[in-house]
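Q: Hi! First time doing this. I have a protein sequence and I read that you can turn it into a structure. Is that right? Here it is:
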Amino acid sequence: MIQVKSIPDKTTPGPGAPTLVGITALTLLGAPLAGVWLAGQPAADYLELPPRPAFLKVAAFSWTVFWLMAAFIAATVSPFVWRFMKTPAPRVERHGAFPVWGWAALAWLVACWTLAWTRLSWFEPVQQHTFTPLWLGYIACVNALTMQRAGTCLLVRAPARFAALFPLSALFWWFFEYLNRFVANWRYTGIEEFDALEYTFLATLAFSTVLPAVVSTAEWLGTYPRLDTAFARWYPVSIPRPKLAAAVVLILTILSLAVLGIFREFVFPLVWISPVLVIVSLQALGGRSTVLEPLARGDWRGVACFSAAALVCGFLWEMWNWGSLARWEYSVPYVDRFRLFEMPLLGYAGYLPFGIECAAIAALVRNPAGLEPR
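A: Yes, that's right. Below is the predicted 3D structure, encoded as structure tokens:
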């Protein structure tokens, strides 16, 4: 079973951990705001609570940009796909029957999906609130699948650690809502009548399911030995001067965040890349373990597993969103075409680095932020 093995399994941060966490938060939250302030834009426009960005007029579809982005995505993803496809599939064994509570979760999931996509008069008072129960059903189901295949799962093995993912997830996704204030790539509809308090409470509940869903899916995918065989020993990536490299990456990432609200039509993909670069760079500069550390020994399992897990969840997020009353819509410059559900096709690539970010944030639960000194 794949785990982020580079993070020591401890629950208390080492010396200096609060400082490192504070610097991370200050960097991620402050850089975009500082950028728009220096550009002469009113910073208060980006601090509205709750953040409900209106759609901005975006650049029209461009075949040139579309094919350039498609080529970059293909060049990045193809080696992983090729490696996985050419690896023989070992025999998959089950460790037991699908648990009874898993069947109950599956029934709950089907019922919630049905209610989300139908418009029954008796259900109308709560029609907007299907997201959270639907995803709770999915999270339980995927844990049951892991239990069937591995004989254990995070929900059963470490319930306190599993529960801690929910509040952490809510904070995690509120940060993306904050970043979206600067790029306005998505907005929510069907919730216009909620006041600020209702919106914040209900959104926090929904956001709390993101990280448990991705982590649970990653654990399930990690039970498949083909993925382990393909990526346990692959190309090692060793950086001769890691602290210097981390400093350079951190500076470039802070600059990219600073221009997020100024050149939004050109740098919007950085919303999904910059956070993990900041986190990993600060951890490396502080002499802490990172989720990318296994790459030095050629172990790509964590990267492949969490990226694939986020893509699986991303597909389900977009699919279940498509027929729901309370939903999100996208407005993406240059590549807003060939939609699969509501998401433009190339937009699904954003889920790949998002999965690595989920791994980095989930490490907070195993060992807060990977903050233990080496």
